[in-house]
Amino acid sequence: MTVRPLTRPAAATAPHEIHARLAGVTRTYGAVGGRGGVHALGPVDIALRRGEFYSVIGPSGCGKSTLLDVLSGLSRPSAGTIVFEGRPVDGAVPDGVGVVFQEDASFPWMTVRDNIGFGLRENGVDAAEIGRRVDAALALMGLRDFAAAYPPQLSGGMRQRVCIARTLVMQPRLILLDEPFGALDAQTRLIMGDELLRVWRETGATVMLITHALDEAAMLSDRIGVMSARPGRILAEIETGWPRERDSRIAADPGFGAVTSRLWGLLREESLRAIGAQAPAGADRA
Amino acid sequence: MSRAGLVRTAIVVAAVAALELAARGGLLRAGVAVPPSEVAAKLWSILRAGDANADLAETLGNVALACGLALVAGFSLGAVVHGLPRLRRALDPFLASYYALPFFAFYPVLIVVLGIGRLPIVAIGFMFAVVAMMVATLNGFDRIPRALPRTARVWRMGPVRTALKIKLPSAAPHLFTGIKLAVAYAFIGVIAAEFIMATSGLGYAIAYAFNNYDNRTMYALMLLLLGIVVVVNGVLHGAEQRLLARRRAR
Ligand SMILES: Nc1ncnc2c1ncn2[C@@H]1O[C@H](COP(=O)(O)OP(=O)(O)O)[C@@H](O)[C@H]1O
Ligand SMILES: [Mg+2]
Fold this sequence. Notes:
heterodimer; A: alpha/beta; four-stranded antiparallel β-sheet; 10 strands; globular; B: mainly alpha; MetI-like fold; binds adenosine-5'-diphosphate; binds magnesium ion
């Protein structure tokens, strides 16, 4: 892969088609009769453009996973609306949405091949088509030699690849990833990031990546939503302006430092707040 | 064989030999003990003549029925109760103290309600086994990584499919503990119930031999029961090992 000179402006197609939209979304956990509970998120407004790579970055505990939960339909927002491909999302995951969780979600009782094909089988896809898609996903994620292995025999990075492959075979149009590389070492993260970029380009899917790593967000994204400390709100959205053909070597681009320092400028105070807010445990519950 | 295995075998051989010697040397009264070799010979002749076949089939049928029902009901109840945290909190003390109940004391009630015959016997075996399976299911479901059922929701699988295709295999190592307990409890329940309220079956045959001072038959049938339980447990253990082998990192 080559890093092209960064002279070309970012995919500058004039009116962006909105793929998914969150409007005034909030989420409160465990509120009883409208009182108490943890206000985890929002209000948040995000408009994901079709085919873009959008990252969400924010201090830990700011509500990033909660955001993914409500956007995917895994949980209902306490207020606000979510629309995916023109239809409201309400308490169920719509067709066309794929999710990769932060934790390992591979099935230890199935081979890698069966893991990847499981969702297709459950959704009634015929065997020949499953075989084709699984083979393609195995090749794409570098898992061909491990097709017959069981996940416990693999490293954490390999297992996360299984989960990504399992999501890709469903051919989602919107892929949500919750800190998928969190458990990996720095070099593996970079490589997985490049693979994710390649998948994103080849599938044309819209990607929302949740991360707490500045460089990861800066390196991979078209746009980055920066979240405040809990309750998480979007403080700013930063356009990176990277070309569609790119990989982790973009970190050498002079513009990269500008992006990361802007991110850090926004996040420093929030991260301090997040740490500070944790000190008096449960103080906000009174 | 491992060192521990050798020691284990030696203990069993020594115990059988000691019993043989004690019985033959007149250390034990003839009415109490029969030398193991004679017990084995008696069992062989019973098996050859097919004298115990009907009782054996009946008992195994009762155990299989009690155990099978207990496994299905225990798993289903466990799965449902796991999804209803409030009900579970309410039930917890009952589940915890369930095996403190002296079930067999209630046998007259069972006979009054269910009549004489198979039903009360299977019922006791079932009641004895079902809660072990239910508790094992609850424990197993507690340990399912959260991301697994969430993955099922992303694939829009319903609650029953999720329970059978995701939660059941994920909890399988814990469920296996429940299965082993349920099998053991079903055997105990059925045999004991046959002692007190049956007119056929292995438990009844043992009690009948005992009441008629037929020690040889009594011990032979006990040996038969022991053999069956050992084989069943061996098969379960083997299946469990195969299941776990895949899930261990190499
Ligand atoms: N199921 C839950 N019940 C109660 N509080 C929760 C729950 N899930 C998350 N929270 C709280 O909501 C806040 C945001 O959590 P989360 O979305 O997981 O943050 P992040 O992913 O950014 O680290 C945290 O304070 C967390 O403790
Ligand atoms: Mg999180």
